[in-house]
TrEMBL record:
Domain Helicase ATP-binding stretches: 1-132
Pfam families: DEAD
Protein name, entry field: RNA helicase
Keywords: ATP-binding, Helicase, Hydrolase, Nucleotide-binding
The keyword RNA-binding is assigned to this record: no
Enzyme class: hydrolase
UniProt organism field: Hydnum rufescens UP504
Catalytic activity: ATP + H2O = ADP + phosphate + H(+)
EC number: 3.6.4.13
Gene Ontology MF, one: hydrolase activity
InterPro entries: DEAD/DEAH_box_helicase_dom, Helicase_ATP-bd, P-loop_NTPase
Recorded superkingdom: Eukaryota
């Protein structure tokens, strides 16, 4: 790029790709292992020397095993660049402790949930982390109706499929009640999964059960040479 951007928003893999970082991923994580390890650039397209703030949204997901190695590689690359040392793109230190001596830029982590394992990791990795919490974080609008699907003791995928069939059937009945035909129902459902491979697995299962699905995840499946 001719001019470094003032603000950059991107996925971990895209930012690492633009910075020409080669990241050793967790081979036990299908989603992480599936990401391309090669670099298409002969030189980095972005630099981190002027980075002042790094904001990681959905930190509970991005510090999970699917993305943690990429995230920590980016943070260490920013830290070293801000300290005046360009990291070797073939060897980025992973999971080094983040102390006050490393505070060469500002880091903000946002998340709605912090599992016990992630909390322990944050305490180890970021011992000086300042927490800001709100008691209203998970308070839902009163008009929003919530319902839980019990999957205990059975096949979670089958339980999800059963619930979707019920939702679509109710949509068809509502269409008939309003003077349309059942086929006019345009009910659509968005399902969020905590891992890319889980989304792929669920999508394949629902397709096999006769439901049309579109699976969207963060895995790159085609070459890309710039910002999108």
């Amino acid at each position: 790029m001719e001019r470094q951007p003032d603000i950059m928003i991107g996925t971990p893999s895209k930012i690492a790709h633009l910075a020409a970082l080669i990241v050793e991923t967790d081979q036990e994580s299908p989603a992480a292992a599936a990401r391309p390890k090669g670099i298409n650039f002969t030189r980095p397209e972005i630099s981190f020397e002027a980075v002042e703030w790094v904001v990681i949204d959905e930190a509970d997901v991005l510090f999970d095993r699917d993305y943690r190695q990429t995230i920590t590689a980016i943070l260490d690359a920013v830290r070293l660049a801000r300290m005046g040392s360009q990291p070797d793109s073939t060897e980025i230190p992973i999971d080094s402790k983040w102390t006050s001596s490393h505070s060469s830029f500002n880091l903000i982590l946002t998340t709605a949930t912090i599992p016990a394992s992630l909390n322990a990791y944050f305490l180890e990795r970021f011992p000086n982390l300042v927490r800001i919490t709100s008691p209203n974080l998970h308070r839902l609008p009163r008009a929003l109706q919530t319902e839980r699907v019990d999957t205990a003791g059975g096949n979670p995928l089958a339980s999800i499929h059963k619930k979707l069939v019920e939702v679509f059937a109710e949509g068809a009945r509502e269409a008939v009640r309003s003077g349309r035909t059942a086929s006019d129902s345009n009910s659509q459902v968005i399902l969020f999964c905590n891992r890319a491979n889980k989304a792929t697995e669920l999508g394949a299962y629902l397709e096999n059960m006769g439901l049309t699905c579109l699976v969207i995840d963060g895995l790159e499946r085609r070459p890309s040479t710039g910002l999108e």
